[in-house]
Amino acid sequence: MKHIIDSKDFSREFLTSLFEKTDDIIKNTGKYSESLKGKVIATLFYEPSTRTRLSFESAVLRLGGSVISTENAEEISSVKKGETLEDTIKTIENYAEAIIIRHKDDDAGKTAASISNVPIINAGSGKKHHPTQALLDLYTIQREKEKIDNISILVMGDLRYGRTIHSLLELLSLYQNIKVYGYPIKGLEMDANFKIMLKEKGVHYIEVQSFDDVPASIDIIYQTRIQKERFTQNEEVHEIIINQNIMDKFSEKTLLMHPLPRNNEISNELDRDKRSIYFKQAKNGMFVRMAILHELLNK
Ligand code: NCD
Q: What pLDDT, in 10s, does the model give residues 225-237?
């Protein structure tokens, strides 16, 4: 695989081998300390990021590579001067062995990959794609549940603009007997075409309007933030909050995930609940990204 652009591009075999590599990197981190030796990786972020950018940069450094970075690419000189994304990529590919990009347009990763001579890693594009987040989410599910087939998951919050949910569900559709409950905020429902796609791929999708419609034994609850920055007009929406009281209705084995950052949609009191694994997820992210970089650049 040359680029990481869209969850649709992965096979089950690729995921299995990437997760095995991630396990090995966690166990034997030192073994990989020179895997990117002499390589420069560029992070080009047109949208804000803390976890994704820093975990990628930390991953590069731990693999012995170096980083050049623009955190505020929307504000950098070339964009201000009216340069296209294509021209920026054609320039930066001369300075780096790979480009990690985050952009507000759904197709930015694809556009960049179509013209780049170096690997492009999509670190989030628009409302549709966030493949490396999906990889770390799925890795976390496998590590915690010791399986992916036959899992049930509640995805909730912003099902319209949340790119992490779209990318994760694409990945889950590669597995057997996946049951997805969707609990959208009113006005932020999942796109009808996406639901059709899930059905075509054999994912059982059930939309619910209350926690009461979700089985107490559900394996995962995946909560998300309202993506206000993607609203096209001033929409009035009301978040659905998970607190201890709600979590107590679910099984001891139900895990609570969130890509972070959170606003109020998960009460802080739940940080002490052992079923809350969102910070573990963020930690796994760095190791999964090490595995991605190793696979793309060291083969
Ligand atoms: C997510 C994103 O950027 O889509 N954050 C992340 O990468 N961990 C989710 C979000 O911003 O709500």
A: 999 999 999 889 9
Rounded CA separation 94/107 (Å): 22
Pull the structure tokens for residue 51: 């976890």
Encoded amino acid at 152, one letter: S
What are the Cα distances from residue 297, in Å, to 125, 137, 146?
Answer: 22, 22, 29
Ligand 1 centroid – CA 93 distance (Å)? 26
**Whether 294 is catalytic:** no
Predicted TM-score (pTM) above 0.85: yes
What is the DSSP secondary structure assignment for residue 276, as one 8-state letter? B
Active site residue: 130, 163, 166, 225, which one? 130
Map tokens 């040359």 to a residue. 2
Single-letter code of the amino acid located at 268:
N
Q: Which atom of ligand 1 is nearest to the CA of 260?
A: 8
Residue-wise pLDDT for 55-85, tens only, equals 999 999 999 999 999 878 888 777 778 889 9
CA distance 1 to 219: 31
Q: Going edge to edge, which strands form the sheet with 98-103? A: 66-70, 40-45, 98-103, 120-125
For 99, list phi and psi in degrees, rounded to 5.
-125, 125
Q: Is the Cβ atom of 51 under 6 angstroms away from ligand 1?
A: yes
List % helix, strand, coil for the chain (3-state, nearest 5).
Answer: 40, 15, 40
Query: Which residue is it, tokens 């993607």?
Result: 230
Tokens of 244: 């201890």
Atom of ligand 1 nearest to the CA of 51: 8
130 is catalytic: yes
